[in-house]
C-alpha cells in the first residue's frame, strides 16, 4: 500500500463519511428538548433516524451506477449540495414535519458519500490490502460518531438543539469545499463502464457471495441503528439523565467498533474471512444478550445498555470491513454499483427496522435486546449461506 497516495484519499473518505455519521447521531442527546419544542412524544423522534436512513440507503442505488459512468467526484459534489439544502430546511421552517422532510433530504445528499466510501478504495486496492484499507477507514470513521453526541449534548445545553444543526451545515460546507479542492478522480475515463444499470445490478446481485455478505451487513447495521435510535429514549426519558450525561454514555460503546476494526486490519493477512466472521458473530451475540437478559427481568440499566452495545460494536467493527471487502472485490468494473447496493440495502434495511421499532413502546430494554438478538440470528444465517454457496476453495476458507 503506497502511503503517499493512500493518506489524502483516506482523509477525504473519512471527511465525506463523517458528515453523514454526525448527522445520524448528533441530535440524539437533544431528543427530550426537541420533543418539547415540537410538542410530540420522545418516541416519535425515532422517526427522524428512519427518515434519514431510508433515503440515505435508496439514493445510493442512483449514485453508485452513475459514478461508474461519470466518475466519483461529480457525484460527491452534487450529494453534498443536496445535504446542505436539507439542513437549511430544518433550520428555517419551525415544524416537526419540516424536521422529517429536511432529514429525508439530508439522507438523499449524504448517500453519495456513503456509496463512494465503499467504492474509492476498491478503485485503488484489492485482496488483503483492500480489507486492510477498509479496516483503516472504519477506524478513522468511528471518531465522528464518537464526537457527534458529545458535541450535540454540549451545544444543546449551551444554546439549544438547533445549534447542532447549524454546526452540521458549517461542517458540510467545509467538507464540500475540501472535496472540490483536493479530491482527485479515482475512476479514470478509460475504466468507466458502459453497462446498462439493469445489467450491472443483475451481474452484481446474481453473485451468491455478494448476497451472503450483503445480508450480513444489513443485519449488523440494523442492530447498530436500532440501538442508536433507542438509546436516547431509554437513557433520557426512562432513566431521566441529562443531555450531557446521555451524550457521554451514548459514545462509550463506540471505541468497541474501533477495536473491532483494528482487529480486522491486524488479522486480515492471518485469518480467513470465515474465521474473522465467526469471531465477529460471537461478539454480536454476547453483546445483544447483555442487553436482552436484564430486560427480560424488567431492568433498565445504563451499565447493561452501554456494556452490551460496546461488545456488539466490537463484532460490528470486525464484520463490517471484512464483509464489505469480500462483497465488493469480485466487481472491479462495477465497484460503484456494488458499493451502492451494499450501502443502499444496509441503510434501507436499518431504516425500516428502526421505523418498525419506533412502533413499539420503548419503556424497557427488552424490546431493544430482542431486536438486536434477531439481527444476530440473521447474521448467522448469512454465514451459513456463504458456506453453502461458496466454491470448494471458498467453503474451506469459511
TrEMBL record:
Membrane topology: Multi-pass membrane protein
GO terms (BP aspect): xenobiotic detoxification by transmembrane export across the plasma membrane
InterPro entries in UniProt: Efflux_drug-R_Bcr/CmlA, MFS, MFS_dom, MFS_trans_sf
Transmembrane segments: 41-63, 75-93, 99-121, 133-151, 163-183, 214-235, 241-264, 276-297, 303-323, 335-360, 366-386
Compartments it resides in: Cell inner membrane; Cell membrane
CC terms in the record's Gene Ontology section: plasma membrane
Predominant location category: membrane
Domain Major facilitator superfamily (MFS) profile residues, every copy: 9-388
GO molecular function terms attached to this record: xenobiotic transmembrane transporter activity
Record keywords, A-Z: Cell inner membrane, Cell membrane, Membrane, Transmembrane, Transmembrane helix, Transport
PANTHER family: MAJOR FACILITATOR SUPERFAMILY (PTHR23502), MULTIDRUG RESISTANCE PROTEIN D (PTHR23502:SF32)
Family per record: Belongs to the major facilitator superfamily. Bcr/CmlA family.
Protein name: Bcr/CflA family efflux transporter
Source organism (scientific name): Aeromonas veronii
Upper taxonomic lineage: Bacteria, Pseudomonadati, Pseudomonadota, Gammaproteobacteria, Aeromonadales
Amino acid at each position: 500500500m503506497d502511503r503517499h497516495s493512500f493518506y489524502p484519499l483516506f482523509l477525504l473518505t473519512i471527511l465525506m463519511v463523517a458528515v453523514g455519521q454526525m448527522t445520524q447521531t448528533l441530535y440524539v442527546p437533544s431528543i427530550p428538548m426537541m420533543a418539547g419544542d415540537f410538542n410530540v412524544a420522545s418516541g416519535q423522534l425515532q422517526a427522524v433516524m428512519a427518515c434519514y436512513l431510508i433515503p440515505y440507503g435508496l439514493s445510493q442505488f442512483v449514485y453508485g451506477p452513475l459514478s461508474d459512468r461519470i466518475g466519483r467526484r461529480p457525484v460527491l459534489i452534487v450529494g453534498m449540495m443536496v445535504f446542505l439544502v436539507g439542513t437549511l430546511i430544518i433550520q428555517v421552517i419551525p415544524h416537526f414535519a419540516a424536521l422529517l422532510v429536511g432529514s429525508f433530504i439530508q439522507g438523499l445528499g449524504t448517500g453519495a458519500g456513503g456509496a463512494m466510501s465503499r467504492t474509492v478504495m476498491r478503485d485503488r486496492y484489492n485482496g488483503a490490502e483492500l480489507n486492510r484499507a477498509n479496516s483503516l477507514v472504519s477506524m478513522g470513521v468511528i471518531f465522528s460518531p464518537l464526537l457527534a453526541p458529545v458535541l450535540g449534548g454540549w451545544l444543546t445545553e449551551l444554546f439549544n438543539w438547533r445549534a447542532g444543526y447549524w454546526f452540521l451545515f458549517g461542517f458540510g460546507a467545509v467538507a464540500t469545499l475540501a472535496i472540490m479542492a483536493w479530491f482527485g478522480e479515482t475512476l479514470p475515463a478509460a475504466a468507466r463502464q458502459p453497462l446498462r444499470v439493469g445489467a450491472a445490478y443483475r451481474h452484481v446481485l446474481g453473485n451468491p457471495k455478494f448476497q451472503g455478505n450483503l445480508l450480513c451487513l444489513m443485519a449488523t447495521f440494523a442492530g447498530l441503528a436500532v440501538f442508536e435510535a433507542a438509546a436516547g429514549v431509554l437513557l433520557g426519558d426512562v432513566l431521566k439523565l441529562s443531555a450531557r450525561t446521555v451524550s457521554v454514555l451514548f459514545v462509550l460503546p463506540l471505541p468497541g467498533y474501533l477495536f473491532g476494526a483494528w482487529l480486522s486490519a491486524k488479522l486480515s493477512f492471518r485469518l480467513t474471512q470465515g474465521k474473522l466472521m465467526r469471531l465477529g458473530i460471537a461478539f454480536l451475540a454476547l453483546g445483544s444478550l447483555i442487553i436482552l437478559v436484564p430486560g427480560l427481568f424488567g431492568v433498565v440499566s445504563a451499565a447493561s445498555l452501554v456494556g452490551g452495545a460496546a461488545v456488539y460494536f466490537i463484532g460490528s467493527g470486525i464484520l463490517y470491513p471484512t464483509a464489505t471487502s469480500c462483497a465488493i472485490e469480485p466487481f472491479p468494473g462495477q465497484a460503484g454499483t456494488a458499493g451502492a447496493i451494499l450501502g443502499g440495502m444496509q441503510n434501507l434495511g436499518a431504516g425500516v427496522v428502526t421505523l418498525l421499532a419506533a412502533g413499539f413502546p420503548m419503556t424497557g430494554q427488552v424490546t431493544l435486546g430482542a431486536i438486536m438478538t434477531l439481527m444476530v440470528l440473521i447474521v448467522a444465517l448469512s454465514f451459513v449461506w456463504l458456506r453453502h454457496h461458496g466454491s470448494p476453495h471458498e467453503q474451506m476458507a469459511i
